[in-house]
Amino acid sequence: MKLIRWRIVHFKIYRLLGTYSNLEKEDKLKLVNTIIQTYLWAHGTENLSDIDKINLDDLIIISVELLFEINQYEWSVLNPMNFMAISILEYGLKKSPTNGSIRIWLMKFYGKLGLTSKFTSIGQNVKNLAEENFEKFGGLKYTYYQAFGVERELDATNTRYENYYTEALTKNKNALTNGFKNRDFEQLNNLLQNNDKLENSFF
Question: What is the DSSP string of 126-183?
C-alpha cells in the first residue's frame, strides 16, 4: 500500500506543478493508462482509508482532464477519447457515488453528446455537494436544459435553486439580525460576505 500511496502523491504533485502540460498526445494517453492501472490496483487491495479513497477519486479527475486536453476529436460525437473518459468516470462514480466532481464531469460529457436521459439520470438525487460544486452543478443543468429545450427539467432546476437560495438568504439575514441584536460582532463580517455571495448566486 505504501507504493500505491507514493504513486498517487507522485501523480497529484506532478499535475499541480504542470509537469504534464507539455506532454505529447501519445504520452498523455500512456500516462492515463498508467494512472488508471494504479487506481485499479489500489481498489483491488484491502483496508483503504477514507483519505486513500479521496486521493484515488482525484486520479479519476486527473485522467479525464488529460484525455480532455488531448482534444483529438469533436466532443459532440462519440469517439475513442470521450468513450474512454466516460468509462473511467462511470467506474469512478460507481466506487464513489457521492463525489460531485466526478458526477459533474460525467454530465459534461453526456451533455456534449446530447444524451438527455443519461444527463438527467446522473444529475438526480445529488446530495451534500459543497456550495461551489452546488452552484456549478446547477449552472451546468440550467445551460444544458435551456440549450436543448427540455422545459420540464429546466423548470424543476429553476425551482430547486430558487428555493435553496431564498431559504439560505433568509437564514443568513436572520443570523445577521440576531448578531446585531446580541452584539455578537465576531461572525458579522463572515455573514455579510456570505450575504453578498448568496445575493449574487443562482447562476
Answer: --S--HHHHHHHHHHHHHHHHHHT-HHHHHHHHHHHHHHHHHHHHHHHHHHHHHHHTT
Q: Closest Cα to residue 121, out of 111, 112, 133?
A: 111
- Reduced to 3 states, what is the DSSP secondary structure of residue 52? helix
How does pLDDT run across 94-144, given as a tens digit for each residue?
Answer: 999 988 889 889 988 998 888 888 888 887 766 666 565 677 777 777 777
61-65 own/partner pairs: CB under 8 Å, 24+ apart: 61/101, 61/102, 61/105, 62/11, 62/12, 62/15, 62/35, 63/32, 63/35, 63/36, 63/39, 63/88, 64/88, 64/89, 64/105, 65/15
Question: How is the chain split into domains, by residue range?
Answer: 1-126, 129-203
**Which pTM does this prediction carry?**
0.71
Rg (CA), the chain: 20
